[in-house]
User: Fold these one by one.
Assistant:
Number 1:
Amino acid sequence: MDGKRRYGIEGYIDRAYDEVDTGTTQEVSGRIDGVAEGVRTPFLERKYSNPISHTVRVPKRKSISPFAVVVALFVAAILIVLYINNIITVNHLMREISVLESKHQRLVNDQEILRARIHKLSSFDRVQRIAQSNRGLTFPKEAPQVLLVDPERLYEAKRLLNRMEGTITKE
C-alpha cells in the first residue's frame, strides 16, 4: 500500500490483500472477489476449521422495538388529529367569510339605494317645487344688478367698522 488510507470497495480490497499471507496474486484476487460477493472461497475454507459452515455474513437488521412502534403510532395519531382540526377550522372560517361577504354585499346594495334616494331628493325640480309651495320663494323677475364698489370707500368702511368695534369692546 502507498501509505494512504482508502475507503469504500478499494479500501476493503486493500485490507483483504494485507490479511492474505499465502498464494499468488491471481489466487488472492479471486479469493477477494469471492469475499466481496459473499461466496465461500478456498481462502476462507482454509482460514476456519469447519469450511462448510463459514461464509461472509451480511449483518442483520435491527428489529424495531415495540416502544418505538407505539411512539410512532402516537405521533401519527397526533398529526392526524391536528390535520383534521386544521381542516375543521378552515371550513369554519370559510363559512364565516361567506356570511361576512353576504353582509358586505347587502350593505353595498343598501348604500347604492340610499345614494339613489339622495339624488332623487336633492334634484333641482323637487327643491324648486318645495321652495315655491311651502316657503313662497320664487325666482326674481328682473335680472340681478352688478354693484361696483370703490376700493377707497371699502377701505374706509372697514376702518370705520374696526373703530366702532374697538369702542364697543372698551365699554
Number 2:
Amino acid sequence: MNCIVLQPKASELACNNFDKTIATGVKKELLQKFVEDHDWKIIESLDLGDKVRVWGVMDNNVSKFRKLGRGDLVLFTAKNVIEAYGKVAYSFYCPILARFLWGQDEGKTWNYIYIVEDFHHANDIPVKALNKALGYHENNVIQGFTVIDDKSRINGFYRDFDYSNGILTLHDSGKTAASLTSILDLLNKYNGLSFEEIQSKTNTSREELESLLNGGVRGKLFRFESGRYYA
C-alpha cells in the first residue's frame, strides 16, 4: 500500500521554493550536472518531460524520508487547504543539488530530495476534510513533512477521497481538484477535449466546470473551437 505524504508550505521561504522547483520545475539537464550517475540513470528512465518537479527535506526527516516509494501520494498544503498534489517518482540524497536549488536556512539545506510526477494544482480542498479522513482532529495543524504509512489512516483517506483517475476528489462534497491550471494541464496533454471528456477526467460538476471553462476562454488560457477546447 502506497503511503500518503503531507508536505505543508509553512513559511514564505517554503512558498518561494515551491514556486521555483515544484510549480515551475527544474530543467532536467540541470539535474545531470549534480546527481550521482546511478541516480541520473534512474531519473533519465522516467517519463518526466523536459522539466522535473523536485522537493527536499532536511536531515532531521531522514527516517520518514526513507519510507518514500514510487507512487506515494503527496499533498501540498497551505492556508488550511490542499493547494496541489502529485506522486513520488523517485527519491535520492544530493546535498550539492539542494544547495544550488534552495540555498541554506540557518546553515542547513534540504539534502534529501524527491521528484514529483503527475502534478496538479488543487481547487482548495479544506484541510479539515483531510484531517477527518485521516482520523485527526479537524483543527489539527499539519506541521512538517509527514509520511503516513498506517493502513487504517490510509483506508480512511480513500474512504473520503477518490484518486482512481489521477484527479483528487472529495467524495462527501463532490468538490474536486479541478482548476484552470489542472484543466490546462489536461489540454496540454491531449490534443483537444470536449466538455464531456474534461468533465469525465476531472469529475467536476457541470455548473462548476462551465464556470471554469468560460473563465479560461475569457482569460485566453485556452481556446474553444468546433466543440472542443485547446491549449
Number 3:
Amino acid sequence: MSTESTESTDLDHVEETTSSPDAERVEGSEAVAAAAVGDRTEEERGDVASGDDTGAADADVATAVSDTPAPAAKPSRRKALEAEGDVAADFLEVLLDICDIDGDIDVDIDGDRASVSIVDSEEGRVPRRLVGPDGKVLDALQELTRLAVQTETGERSRLMLDIAGHRAGRKAEIVEIARGVIAEVKETGSAVEMEPMTAFERKIVHDEVLAAGLRSESDGVEPRRFVVVLPASG
C-alpha cells in the first residue's frame, strides 16, 4: 500500500471530541470493519450527515459576480491542509490493514480543503461496498476520518474522502445536469427548481451557476433540499 501526495486547485461538520487519537483509531477500525462485512452503520440508518456542508456551508446561497476560480490556499494554509491529508492517510491505512482491504491512498489539495482518495491498487480493487448504497458508507467513513483528523490536530476538518472514484463520477454527472438547467434559465429567463440533492451535490451546482453568471439558492428541508437556479439580477 502506498501513499502519494500531489497538489491541485479546486468545503462538514464534525462534533468535537475529547477522545485520544489511539482510541479514535480503534473505534474507527471497528466502524470500517463493520461496513466491510455489511453490518448496518449509523450512516445506513440515515444518522450521519452526508456530502458537503450541511450546517454553515449549507446556508448556501450563491450569487454570481465573476468567473474567477477560487484562489489557491495561502502557503501557511496549504501546509495545514497537507498535514490534514497526511493524518487522514495514516488513519485510513491502518483501517485498510486491519480489514485486510486492498487500496492505495492519494492525498491532494482541492481548493481550500484536503482531498483524500482510496483508489484501486496493483494488489486489487477497493471493495465497492465501502461506498455503499448512494454513497452512504462513504459518507460515514468521511465523517470518521474527519473526526480522526480533528483529534490529532485539534482543528475542525473539512476534508473530502472519495473511494474508487465515486464522488468524482457523481460530480461529473451533476455538472452536466447543472449546465442543462443553466442553459434553460438563460433561454427562458425564468427560475428553475432542481431535484433534491445532497449538500455535496448542491455545492457543485452552486459553483457551476456562479461560473455561468447566474444566481442560485437552496430551498426545502433535508433530505429533500434542492437548488433553485435564477436569472442574473438586473
Number 4:
Amino acid sequence: MLGIPKFRLLPAILGIGLVGCGNPEITVYQVPKAPQPPAQAAAAPQPAQAAPSAGILWKVPPGWIEKPASGMRLASFEMPTADGKGDCSIITLAGDGGGTLNNLNRWRSQLGLDPIPPSELDSAMSTRTGGFGDYSFFRIVNPEVDEKAFLVSIIHTDRGALFVKLTASRRSIDSLTEPFQALSDSIHIPDE
C-alpha cells in the first residue's frame, strides 16, 4: 500500500481522528436517497391451481368499514364495538392453506389455548353454507383473555382456500358473530 508500513499508517490515522478540525459544532447534512431501479420480477412457476384473487365478491355488513387491501389481505374491514373496534380480513391461499386442524391450533395458541387432537375437530367447528357451498366456521375464545378472541371461516374453493378472520375483544365476539357469518355467507364469484 504505497510503500508505507501498516504500523506507521495506524498512528497517523488515529492522530488525525483525535485532532479533528478543531470546530466544536456538529453539522448534519441530509442527502436524498438515490432512486432505486425497478425490481425485476422473478419468473416463478405458477401452481397448477392458483389461489383465488380477483372476481370474488362479498356484502359488507352494515356499520363495517371496508379498508384498503394490503399484503396478503384480499380485503380488510374495521367495525366499531362496545369497547373499541374489531378487525376482519379475507385472505386467500393455494391448496388447503396448511390444513384446517393446523390453522385452528395455531389460532388457539395465539389465545393461549392448548391444541386439540384431530378427533375433536368436528366438535370445534360448525358447518355453514355460503356462496361457495359448505364452509367451516369457528368461534375461538379463551375465557381468561379479555382483549382478543377470533371468529374464523374457512371456505374451500376449486382454486384454493379463503380465510375470513375477525379479531375483537372477548366481550364483543357474540355481537359480531351474526354480521361476520353474513359476510362469510355472502362471499361468492358472480355468475358469468
